[in-house]
């Protein structure tokens, strides 16, 4: 009996041991499965993450702005299938070439260089020849009537003074309809007549009539691309003319106003510059009045200028430099140094222009399967046989990188640099 009991107990022990072994094996298998599942999910997640942030380069084209070099570029990219939207306002474009690195943020959807909705890289700007607006005749006894009168200012830059006339109410005296009675005619010796409206404070056209109905208030109205006109009066002494006898009459003519390439005050609007015989006027778009800097001389010809001025409107915006000796009166010639170096050189804006596929539902969002052109420029021209690198980086994606080598000879306007 004891022998049978011992045998039964031994069998039970063996059975329990088998159960424990099976349980251990089962637990090990379950743990292994769980670990493999977690790793598989992690790999899937990483794979999906890389997929939704993938931006693929398709083509890089450079444009030759100056001989034997390229400076403006268009990089065509597309988003991979399954991509999540890329927010352009959270993206940067970095270009490395010619020993410089330029870092650009999103500026708009126009593939053209401007300071509003296109691309622009902030760089030093050399202005070339700048002519003074001094020599105007609006002093003492003066009348602007339908007879052309010499302005004593060369507006269109051909070194011949131009003329002005008031457009009489009668057509073709001297102005055709619809300019008669409400415009001034600037007769330019090179580019012919330009018509400037006499506007009221409400923006409607004024009239060259006598009395209070002849009032107007014009502020910085362009004379083509050549200058700006500001003038006002509250009442006219006679119809068909503007004269020193009018009530509260004031006229200010600024010839050769230069629209700067660079956005000095970084407000995405054009800034302007002009001079007279004694001062430089820097008209920043974020200011109600221009910054004024003395030349230190009067432009009578043969003048040595040595101006080094910090540009500051409450914030340091850069430096203005004019140096050299003038030859003629009322002009700073192109062989002098006349430059502006903005504070934020080698920064600026790229633009993103939708060209097809997908739906460009938001101008600042890069959606799945879309194709866009990233438009930008370097701060200096990239010469022949030079290497460069472009990186596009977004907050929710991996960098897209393109390297290029300019050809040994650049002889065409557009050069394909990738692939």
CATH class descriptor name of the largest domain: Mainly Beta
| Residues in β-strands, percent | 35-45%
Radius of gyration (CA) equals 35 Å
Termini, distance in Å?
92 Å
Total domain modules: 4
Query: From the 3D coordinates, which CATH architecture of the largest domain would you assign?
Result: Sandwich
What is the fold-level CATH name, i.e. the topology of the largest domain? Immunoglobulin-like
Structure write-up:
The chain has 419 residues and is mainly beta. The chain folds into four domains: 1-29; 55-123 and 347-418, Immunoglobulin-like (Sandwich), CATH 2.60.40.10; 131-255, no CATH class; 271-342, no CATH class. It is built from one helix and 31 strands. Strands 1, 2, 4, 5, 6, 26, 28, 29, 30 and 31 form a ten-stranded mixed β-sheet that branches. Strands 7-25-23-22 form a four-stranded antiparallel β-sheet, with no helix packed on it. A hairpin with a 7-residue loop joins strand 20 (279-283) and strand 21. The protein is elongated.
In short:
12% of the residues lie in helices and 41% in strands. It is mostly beta strands.
What secondary-structure arrangement, pairings included, does this model have?
Elements: H1 2-52, E1 55-63, E2 69-79, E3 86-87, E4 91-97, E5 100-108, E6 120-121, E7 125-126, E8 130-131, E9 143-144, E10 149-150, E11 163-166, E12 183-188, E13 192-197, E14 216-223, E15 227-233, E16 242-243, E17 250-255, E18 258-259, E19 272-275, E20 279-283, E21 291-294, E22 304-312, E23 316-325, E24 331-332, E25 337-342, E26 347-356, E27 365-366, E28 371-383, E29 387-394, E30 400-405, E31 414-418
Parallel strand pairs: 5-26
Antiparallel strand pairs: 1-2, 1-31, 2-28, 3-27, 4-5, 4-29, 6-26, 7-25, 8-24, 9-16, 10-11, 11-12, 12-13, 14-15, 15-17, 18-19, 19-20, 20-21, 22-23, 23-25, 26-28, 29-30
